[in-house]
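Hi support team,

I submitted a single chain yesterday and got back a structure, but I'm not sure I'm reading the token output correctly. Could someone confirm the output below corresponds to the sequence I sent? I've pasted both exactly as they appear in my results page.

Thanks,
R.
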Amino acid sequence: MLYETISNDMKEAMKAHDKDSLNTIRLLKSAIDLYLVNNKMDRNTCSDEVVIDVVSKQVKTHKESIEEFKKGNRQDLVDGLLKEIELLSKYLPEQLSEEEVRKEIDKAFDKIKPTSMKDMGALMKELTPVLKGKADMSQVNAIIREKLN
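Hi R., thanks for writing in. Yes, this is the structure output for that exact sequence:
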């Protein structure tokens, strides 16, 4: 289970006195625990899907923050967040290439046969279970929009 792996990695970071990794893992573990509390779940039933969902949201938030820090010329903060993203990414499934993402999108297009932007919701509903955690959903959204136009 990913939750146990994260707990073990936190212990290892403590033993190694790796403050950067420890802080990142603690924040991740806190976010997962908050999710569990909010959804009335306990740690014993914490599935890998829950962990992947929380990690994905953390990575997405970090990427958004990086864009803002770049606008403010804060390269020090950008570098810190890039290190955190690298650490968080090891808890995510292997990311699909753009070519693989496009193949999945093509399959969804063949199945749903969209005619306009109104079909965007149906396409995303079809693709989310397949691609969630394995691809950047904003990239998926952009490719679908490009294909529909």
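A quick pointer for reading it: Helices lie at 2-15, 19-38, 48-71, 75-89, 98-112, 120-131, 137-148. Let us know if anything else looks off.

Best,
Support desk
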